[in-house]
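Q: What would this complex look like in 3D?
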Amino acid sequence: MRYLKIILSFVRVGLMSMMEYRVSYFIWAIMGLVWAMFFVFSAYLIVNQVNTIAGWSRNEILILTSVETIFVGLLWLFIFPNLIDFSELIRKGNLDGILIKPLNKRFLVSIKRFQFENFIRIIVLTGYVFFIMNSDNLVINWLNIVNFLILIFFGLIIFYNMFFCITLLNIWFVNLFNLEDFFHNILDMGRFPVQIYKGLIAQLFTFIIPIGYVATFPVQALLGRLEFISVLYAILLVVLTSFFSHWFWNFALKHYSSASS
Amino acid sequence: MNFVDMLGYRADLFLFITSGVIGPIVMILIWLAVYASGGNPNISQGQMIQYYVFLLVIELWNSAWASSFMATEIRTGKMAMYLVKPMSVYWYRVFESTSSKIFKSAYLIPIVLLLVFIFKVNLPVLDFGLFVLFIFSWVFSAAIMLTLDFILGISAFWFDDTGSLNALNDLLYFVFSGRLIPLFLLSSGVQTLANVLPFRYMLSFPLEILLGKVNGMGLLVGLISQISWLLIIVLIAQILWRKGVKKYAAYG
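A: Here is my prediction, written as structure tokens for the whole assembly.
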């Protein structure tokens, strides 16, 4: 398919860019890794005080925090860079140049940049997750791993759609400077099991910002503890967010006024 | 940026405040779960919540974001325009960020009051002397933050890509300023390192005074360290500024 070929050439560009600016990429890769390790280390400090928190054992929480950093790493691999570029396009009024191209417009603004330095932290933290599971004699079962990957995949789609919609707000609010920080902070809420949130906040996180899909539910799948309803809800969210973001995208385009005209 | 401009940035303001607030609130909820599960770090639950709630206020007033704007101005040549004006670029940035913070406080204060109400936070009781020291320490910490940010901004005089430098600073700050976890919960080795670096004196130290976590000899040593770092950073800023401007003007 044409689109697949285009994606592959973007991947190639990303890799070539990495080869050319090796030092810079290396530095960013290390920093990403240090950030991830710091979050996991602080989770370690926090859980060291107790045996279980909200029904999660110490090692399980370490796994969960690691998975959150992997999720964020994946977002930085190929989703965030494009959202950031998209913001810039809107703010500088250059979206027109993209819109007249003969390809699906949403595709063009969503998949272009690949930042491969994030592979380092994704791989290292994945290794760490397996290490913990092994040392804790937790069962590593292929079916669970597949479920885990499926849920991560769903999570990526859900958050991509949500963040895409928020990025679209740049069309009306021209001065949104720090979406990046904002997205990070939202994802931060997923660093610990969602079971620690009770009451009103729990409702918020179930229905409005489904941060359970950042790490909690995938890890539950990995540990074989996932409830089927969470999967159903994930599918529902994927469908809902996809339809809404598609509708919102078309709505936004109609309101888009270019700086050049 | 003046008051009128600020009103136009309402959405950005909302994002900024929300971003700043989520982190500490999430930490509070996490710690509450820890305490509920029987954990017992050497600080009471009440104090832990106090730590993060007051962190919000202190961090807002210490925050500095001019560096990326300054770097862009240097790179695009716009900085030359400011160099001929009679007001120092540094103080311009300080005043500008102060007026912005007044606006941001308007958003933050209701949130803080809400948190105080929900979590039943007590206001710490300090004797007058300690309170004065706290205020001084707070002002020093803000000065260190602003000046360090200024240095990061003018690093654009020499470096094309200031992104990595900024990212490194962000990382070190996040770890060593007590932003995520109170420094006094870390192992003694790490704490010693944190006491030597400037980041503790940008956030944690005034908080420690406020919560009574440091007094006597520790307080004295801490204050001396903080003032020393302030002087060092201001000195570096002045030297780098002069060198940078000379280099910059040479191209004009």
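A: To summarize the key features: Chain B is about 75% helix and 0% strand. The two ends of chain B are 26 Å apart (CA to CA).
Q: Very helpful, thank you.
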